[in-house]
Amino acid sequence: MGFNVDVLDGDPVQIEIVYYTDELAGTFTPLKLNNDGELVGVVGADIFDATRNSEHVVVVQYSAIDGGQNDQDGVLDGTITDPIGLGVAAPAAVTTTTTSQGQVIPAPKRATGSLSATGSNAIDILLFGLLVSLFGFAMLIFAKTRVSKAG
Which one of 22, 49, 56, 89 has the fewest CB atoms closer than 10 angstroms to its CB? Predict the structure, then answer.
């Protein structure tokens, strides 16, 4: 998810993002893309579980300052640009090492993460293209039928 907020140059903004999910807040880490396309943590973000409209939600709260903290472009221009999402640690592969004495030693765990998918996916685009093509084909048939009846 990403958004822009228009503000007075240099003004801070309090941001709250609510994710409707059954997962607990501890499962996630707020992440954003920096100018180099790398995932980085959101400075000063609080993440917690809450209830909204009788549903469990995960809430992320933080502040952003035009041209400063959590403004991706870092430019004092009256707009805060903020690409943010929730990262989930991928499960670590289970590997072990066995010593010559037969002792099993687990490998150290490494966590990696990725932003949650919040945009369109390829199936949506494919279905839209198919719908447009069918509509165009139907219009072509209609036009040919109309021309043949007129002639």
Answer: 22
